[in-house]
Amino acid sequence: MNAAAATTIVGVSATNNDFLLAVEGLTVSFDGFKAVDDLSFYVDRDEIRVIIGPNGAGKTTVLDLICGKTRATAGSIRFEGRELTKMSEHEIVRAGVGRKFQTPSIYEDLTVFENLELSIPGTRHVFKALGFRRDRAVVERVTRIAEEIFLADQLTRRGDELAHGQKQWLEIGMLLIQDPALLMLDEPVAGMSVAERTKTADLLNRITRGRSVIVIEHDMNFVKDIAHKVTVLHQGRILSEGDIDKVQSDPKVIEVYLGH
Ligand SMILES: Nc1ncnc2c1ncn2[C@@H]1O[C@H](COP(=O)(O)OP(=O)(O)OP(=O)(O)O)[C@@H](O)[C@H]1O
User: How far apart are the CA of 145 and the centre of ligand 1, in A?
Assistant: First the structure.
């Protein structure tokens, strides 16, 4: 069911739990400036949603609001029926929301294996404990994720030895190993080669079985490869929304974004 249909059926507010994420009336003001202004959008289960828009449109701020880094001035963010605006960042992570920032933040002095292992919920303190041994389940889980992110043959390499694209994949893997129901990625292919972008599109298309992904992106070729639906932001509001063809041919979008 799409957002419009849900709104029609339930009337005023589409608090419909069919959606993985329902953002309604979301607003944040910084000293009176509304970076996000009465924004509503809905993300389906297993959907890849791409958010595009000019610089300063509010894209990163929307992700900051969803993950709890920034507090909303008004509005609601319902995720699997739970209200995120009232939860701390840690609670939001535990509820199943993973967020990757623009620059990779892996542990440079640890191996790929160790980076993934440390990201498994609950292993951080076990790792430090005397006599900790890796059990087979951990090894299998790390190996499975490493295969997904094209790093199966890089497990013993240190983070600082990886190429930029490999670091980006490792960070996606560090989120995937936590098995989030919603994964949010801010410009994941920035600085990647064309071949790496193609592999990343393949990776994102594979991982949406059982989870949804929100991606902020400027590279329209990449957007075409992954987007189920595109939301175009401008001045903190939705300028256009729909499939890539609809959005690309929308005169308003061409005027403020694509035509530049
Ligand atoms: N903590 C903050 N305090 C004050 N203003 C902020 C804050 N965070 C964001 N803004 C402002 O809100 C607006 C939206 O910023 P945001 O980073 O969300 O845009 P964006 O669409 O992600 O842009 P870009 O494509 O350049 O990353 C900008 O004008 C920015 O300066």
Answer: 33
Q: ∠ CA(118), CA(120), CA(121), 5° rounding?
A: 110
User: What are the E-state strand segments in 80-225?
Assistant: 82-83, 97-100, 182-186, 212-216
**In which domain, by residue range, is 155 found?**
110-161
In a domain, 39, yes or no: no
Same domain for 102 and 114, yes or no, is no
Tell how far the Cα of 60 is from the centroid of ligand 1, in angstroms.
7
Whole-angstrom Cα Rg for the chain: 19
Name which residue sits closest to atom 24 of ligand 1, judged by CA.
55
| Gap from CA of 235 to ligand 1 centroid (Å) | 10
- Tell which residue, 237, 243, 176, 187, has the closest CA to residue 214: 187
pLDDT tens digits along 123-146: 665 555 544 566 888 899 999 999
ipTM of the complex, rounded to two decimals: 0.95
State both tokens at 33: 């400036």
